[in-house]
């Protein structure tokens, strides 16, 4: 999982390296893991364990399903202090990757 690094860009001027700028809409290619987003200005990413996601989605209950796609089910969840101390209550959507599906491999972050 993670962002695949991009090929280095060739410089328009021979002998000089091209510089690449990034912003929140265009993260740098060096980001290889979701944890890297927390260090990148403009993102407030948190990594949650599978157990925390089970708690947030009420054990992935069927009545928590928002939808289904090629990657698997999307569940309604709630992140709060029952999931992790110090977190303000926030509704979230949780994708559960279908290990037998192929689309999720291309879309998963």
From TrEMBL:
Region (Disordered): 1-27
Alphabetized UniProt keyword annotations: ATP-binding, Nucleotide-binding
Binding site for ATP: 95
PROSITE patterns from the UniProt entry: PROTEIN_KINASE_ATP
Domain of life: Eukaryota
PANTHER family: OS01G0588500 PROTEIN-RELATED (PTHR45621)
Compositional bias ranges of the Polar residues kind: 7-25
Signal peptide positions (record): none
Gene3D superfamilies to which the protein is assigned, alphabetical: Phosphorylase Kinase, domain 1
GO molecular function, one term: ATP binding
Keyword match Nucleotide-binding: yes
Designated name of the protein: Protein kinase domain-containing protein
Phylogenetic lineage: Eukaryota, Viridiplantae, Streptophyta, Embryophyta, Tracheophyta
